[in-house]
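1st attempt posting a full record on here, be nice pls
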Amino acid sequence: MNKFILPDYLQEYYVKQRDNILAKLNEFKSIPQSQYFYELVYCLCTPMSKAKNAILVQNKLESLDFINNPSINLVEILSSKDHYIRFHNQKVKFISEAQKNFNEILHFIKEDIHIKEKREYLVRSVKGIGYKEASHFLRNIGFFGLAILDRHILKNMVKFNQIKPNFSISGKNNYEKIEKVFVDMSKSVNLQIEELDILLWASETNNILK
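the predicted structure (as tokens):
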């Protein structure tokens, strides 16, 4: 594969957005522990759904203090036309189980172990969480060093001839293989993995979300 060079349009976009990108990364690093569960809710909601809807659901559940009030009608919230989450019945089950087990999840996240071990635990122990979602969750609560291989990132990796169109990220070995390519891409342009991730995502969507 070719060595990755940041195209002119991305260089220009980065210059314009650099302060906003770094501010977002600092926001991740400073997130309070009380919001960890709701970041997990966000990552459980995002597969096959709009990020903005997942954020609205996350904010709604946080405002209702769902972690301490699990009897709240999750189906009604996730299925609302105001912030519709696809496959909401299944995701309701994932969120409910995560709420029940969150003390254990939190304990493991706080352990002084390598970030990849934290990811393995999440993939193994939290229903609805794969390698992408686990990486996303950990990044959003300030644990850096993993690639979030969502469709925007993967599309750009193919576009820039870093991976072949018939790639697979299914399973640990495939995910880590593509992840290493993304890590190498970020090193070649002297950006943190997280900076390159947000840069590519924002250039596609014109939004710096999370």
